[in-house]
Amino acid sequence: MSVKILTDSACDLPLSFYEENHVTLLPLKVEIDGNEYEDVKTIDSKQVYQAIREGKVPKTSQVSPHLFEEAFTELAEKNEDGIYIAFSSELSGTYQTAVMISNQVKEKYPDFNLIIIDSKCASLGYGLIVLEAAKLANAGASKEEILQDIEFRCKHMEHLFTVEDLDYLAKGGRVSKASAFLGGLLNIKPLLNVEDGKLVPLEKHRGKKKLFNRIIEVMKERGDSLESQIVGISHADDENMANEMKELIAEKLGVKEFYISSIGSAIGTHTGSGTIAIFFLNKL
Predict the structure, then answer these.
(1) What is the pLDDT of residues 251-279, one digit of tens each?
(2) I need a surface site. Which of 98, 111, 210, 263 has the fewest CB within 10 A?
(3) 133 and 223: one domain?
């Protein structure tokens, strides 16, 4: 029996991916000027970045319980096995809501068979896990094989990223307002990563060139056979910077395969435009 993969829009994969790979998309919500949109489905990240530039303050919320109920009930009625790979529980309540709704659906359909995994990942780091799970599911792999691959990737996925403007992270309580203010004054570029699902500042560097070189060093220190894995790069409305980073990684580290995507509306709301993020598997 084939396994159905479900995911939410915080994995920053394009809409075409879901249709082509038979993956169920559960969108987070984005609100601008009192209008509510479904991330990826009814709003695209360029609209969000434009709204931010116009001084608007978009808000986000988790996947609605109703959407979960619809998707899970459909699975149960079809008697399909499912794996829902969820956005980090440290960054959203989506995982907890999914568990709650899954338990409710199970009361009505006792044979409902859905595994929910807290990826502890975000953006394309999370997306690369979904990408591989979909490949395995479409190739007819067993549920156990898919779960094993997901768990390995969740445990070993590195997230390295920097933001153009620390103010957005300060508004979301991710960094202190004082750090954001000083960073803006001194052209300080933060290097952040994700540890156990949480956003953690790693270092600070002055200027883009120093920061990019440091990212290469960290990748070299942490990466496992980088030349033979897919490295993810996501960007917030700055494709040129993503391509610049890609060329540097290819030249310095011999990486041959990349997956580049735009940071979606739900995550982009909290990072602002000009963010760049790199994702790869470590050897820890």
Answers:
(1) 999 999 999 999 999 998 888 778 899 99
(2) 111
(3) no
Structural domains of the chain, count:
2
Q: Do 30 and 266 meet the contact criterion of CB atoms below 8 Å apart?
A: yes
User: How many other C-beta atoms can be found within 10 angstroms of the C-beta atom of residue 234?
Assistant: 28
DSSP assignment string, 135-175: HHHHTT--HHHHHHHHHHHHHHEEEEEE-S-THHHHHTTSS
Q: Are residues 137 and 203 in the same domain?
A: no
252 in Cβ contact with 35 (< 8 Å) = no
Instruction: Name the pTM for this structure.
Output: 0.92
Residues 89, 23 share a domain: yes
- pLDDT at residue 182 in the model: 44
Domain of residue 173 covers 157-281
SS3 269: helix
Looking at the fold, whether 129 and 171 belong to one and the same domain comes out as: no
Q: How far is CA 212 from each of CA 151, 159, 206, 245, 279, rounded to the nearest angstrom?
A: 29, 14, 11, 7, 14
Place of tokens 């960054």: 91
269 residue type, one letter: T
Helix (H) and strand (E) counts in the chain: 11, 13
Tell me if 253 sits within 8 A of 220, measured CB to CB.
Answer: yes
Among the listed residues 128, 130, 109, 115, the one whose alpha carbon sits nearest the alpha carbon of residue 233: 128
For the domain that residue 257 is a member of, what is the CATH number? 3.30.1180.10
Confidence of residue 216 (pLDDT cuts 50, 70, 90): very high
Give the number of C-alpha atoms closer than 13 A to the C-alpha of residue 265, restricted to the C-beta side.
Answer: 31
Query: Looking at the structure, do residues 109 and 198 belong to the same domain, yes or no?
Result: no
